[in-house]
Amino acid sequence: MDDILIRGAHVVDGSGTPGRLADIAIRDGRIVAVTTETGRQAHRVIDATGLVAAPGFIDIHTHSDFTLPLNPRAESKMRQGVTTEVVGNCGFSTAPALPGRVQMLRDYLAASAPWLDFRETTFTDYMDTFPATSVNTIMQVGHHTLRLMAMGHEDRAPHDDELRVMQELLAESLQAGALGLSSGLFTTPGGYATTDEMIALGHVLHRYGAGYASHIRDEANRVFEAVQEAITIGEQCDIHVQIAHLKLSGTDNWGGAANLLADIEAARQRGVRVDCDQYPYTTATNPLRNLLPTWVQAGGMEEMLERLADVDVRERLRQDIEAQGLNNFGRIPSWDDVRIAISPHQPDYAGQTIGDIARRRACDPLDAVCDYIMADQGHTRILITSMDEADVQTILRSPDILVGSDGTSLAPYGVTSQGKPHPRFYGTFARILGHYVRELGLLSLPQAIYKMTGGCAAALRLIERGVLREGYWADITLFDPQTIDDVATYDDPHQYARGISTVIVNGEVTIDAGEHTGALSGQVLRRGSGGVGTA
Ligand SMILES: [Zn+2]
Predict the structure, then answer these.
(1) Are 245 and 61 in contact (CB under 8 A)?
(2) What is the whole-number distance in angstroms between the Cα of residue 487 and the centre of ligand 1?
(3) Alpha carbon of 415 to those of 91, 287, 426: distances in Å?
(4) Is this structure's pTM higher than 0.90?
């Protein structure tokens, strides 16, 4: 007798091949049959007539380590059909946190994780004590975090002993089962690192067979060089590289997607192991302070806040931005393209644009930005519309570019329901399957599902996940291909996607008839010699 039998589904198995009508039998957390044979008995039968059965979606690029301890039900992700999240991205991780450095890390991450409790911890202890959650999690250690631990917020190369501390902390994290190292070279303090520093860390990754995930140094005017830098690190260290949220930011760079994809394909052709992910929106989200040139953040938050009060500093900022556009985002059509998302100390501003604020205060927009950062102590997060829809679609059509939300798990209730976060936190996967597959026909359903499942599993070297196959873990999502869609908007982001009826994680039904059952059957998946899986 099976535990669960999913009957009559259109099975799209995650390999990219066309779907077929079949039943899926589950026992002891695993898929025991994908079959057209009749007569199987099960404790529970789920009628999947008219529904697609796919592997649970793998969100290869997220920041849910900031919220899973606060909302272990992973609501906004579960309701999109996500069953595995890769966390610790863009150089940000909440561990390790060394004695005497916890407050520094808390302050640094406040614009991303304003509600999270920080404590002293090694990476091993962090992984061992991560709370039970609804999703499987895969952890990465962040380069910003390592640098903060080793040398604070200094704008310089590390001394030998400081580099050794970073390498040792990285090795400790990898021994614990971290997937690899993430970097966020677009901002501080990681952006103060040279390529050589990253290569020195990459050699440690190579020793453990671990990978390197990068929010590259620039996604705007120097995006081509930044992609090359990531490829160089992968090539020189012989490690897998994951380029995060591939995009071209800033009006000067619009239209370059095909050339960027060609560069990546050329690296693959010569044997570099490089993968990329993407979220399907023209708007990004980041701490407001990161739009400013990186020199202004040297030394850390307090020093930055002091600098921002200085008229000469503001003049230099103004000139830099006029010459180059915004840090990492390039030129944007107007300051109305930057809107306040979450502002812990000034929550009433959520939803307003910098243009709005400057007009109301009758001041220059850059002064409005500096004043705002000072009033909110650098903790504010913004949304910035800086991409071209045609580039987004070119990248999305590419069969090898994977899907990652770059979003955190949120819920429309409780502490994570504050502000107006990016709608991708609630909508990414449903938006691709609804808007881009069904409405625009930009790619086929099996292709889209491959980019969310089998393709991610291969990039991550996941053991027995990502494809619907006998013997594999039963991470399964059922959805209605006629109704699946994202509902979250910039004005009203805290809305669950629709059309996902059942989500099963390690054989446990977690979304049942569209509602969360409260199951917390996710596992922390660790990298070992054979790949990434349960210990
Ligand atoms: Zn990022």
Answers:
(1) yes
(2) 23
(3) 24, 19, 16
(4) yes
Q: Ligand 1 centre and the CA of 512: distance in Å?
A: 32
Q: How far apart are CA 17 and CA 382, in angstroms?
A: 39
Owner of token pair 């077929």 = 20
Q: Is 48 helix (H, G, I), strand (E, B) or coil?
A: coil
Exposure of 144 by Cβ count < 10 A (0-12 exposed, 13-18 middle, 19+ buried)? buried
Going from the Cα of 89 to the center of ligand 1, the distance in angstroms, rounded, reads: 7
Paired residues of 353 in beta bridges: 339
CA pair distance 8, 407, nearest whole angstrom: 33
The sign of the dihedral angle between the CA atoms of 31, 36, 37, 38 is: positive
> What is the rounded CA–CA span in Å between residue 459 and residue 213?
11
The rounded Å distance from CA 453 to ligand 1 centre is 21
In the block, which residue shows the tokens 């079959």? 35
At residue 112, the pLDDT reads: 87
Query: 216 C-alpha to center of ligand 1: Å?
Result: 8
Instruction: Give the Å distance between the CA of 36 and the centre of ligand 1.
Output: 43
Q: How far apart are CA 388 and CA 404, in angstroms?
A: 18
Q: How far is the CA of 403 from the centre of ligand 1 (A)?
A: 14
pLDDT over 90, % of the chain: 96
Compute the distance from residue 49 Cα to the ligand 1 centre, in Å: 39
pLDDT digits (tens, 9 = 90+) for 498-531: 999 999 999 999 999 999 999 999 999 999 999 9
Phi, psi angles (nearest 5°) of residue 360: -65, -35
Strands (E), 274-352: 274-278, 283-287, 338-342
Any bridge partners for residue 42, and if so which? Answer: 2
Question: What's the pLDDT at 535?
Answer: 64
**Phi/psi class of residue 480: alpha, beta or left (left: φ > 0; alpha: ψ in -120 to 50)?**
beta
Q: Looking at 402-406, 419-423, 454-458, which range is the least confident one?
A: 419-423
Distance from residue 91's CA to the centre of ligand 1 (Å): 8
Q: Which residues surround ligand 1, an ion (CB under 5 A)?
A: 90, 215, 244
Interval between CA 245 and ligand 1 midpoint (Å):
7
Q: Give the DSSP H/E element, type plus range, for residue 258.
A: helix 257-269
- pLDDT band, very low/low/confident/very high, at 115 (cuts 50, 70, 90): confident
Choose the weakest-confidence range: 112-121, 129-138, 361-370.
Answer: 112-121
